[in-house]
Amino acid sequence: MKYEWRKKEKDLYIPKQQPEIVTVPKQHFFMIQGQGNPNDEEFSNRIHVLYSLAYAVRMMPKQGHTPEGYFEYTVYPLEGIWDLTEKGRQLDTLNKDELLYTIMIKQPAFVTEEVVERAIEHVRKKKDHPLLDEVIFDSIEEGLSVQMLHVGPYDDEPKTFQEMDKFVASNQLERVSLTHKEIYLSDFRRVEASKLKTVLRYKVKPKA
């Protein structure tokens, strides 16, 4: 039976439309960094190379190689960690050109460095993507966090963050940094803005 992250990992990927506390374990990702407006072509190119690698892993058995421990699964959604440049933090309003990001796609537990190298080799032979050498495979452990499902346009996210901030304050917690995680449950190319579903999450710690 195919492993479905929507069913097996609901606590991490399918939160409610209200703030909640979650402890996020160490996870492994294909990741690539960038700066600038996510509406620009450069951002789309980075998404493309990540999905090329993610599907190269997913389809390996059909390419004649089955990694040890492999199981059928649905490719994980795109995720991103967002921050601002020093210049961007000094502005009163958001300038998307000053955004810093690391976008990523989670990989199943069976994915090793050997599997990663094979995936990179496959993508390079099929169509050598110019950003391929910028992709890294690494782990992130977010730990204690607060998250909430945001429904609607990305530009309306500040309203959801306000709810999260109130929840954090009322639970004797405090935000660790200005960076935050977004998990994109909807394809913005096919879903109208008012129906987009995005998981918003940031790290917290007990208030001192």
Automatic annotation (TrEMBL):
Source organism, top-level taxon: Bacteria
Domain GyrI-like small molecule binding intervals: 18-198
Name of the protein this chain belongs to: GyrI-like small molecule binding domain-containing protein
Natural source organism: Oceanobacillus polygoni
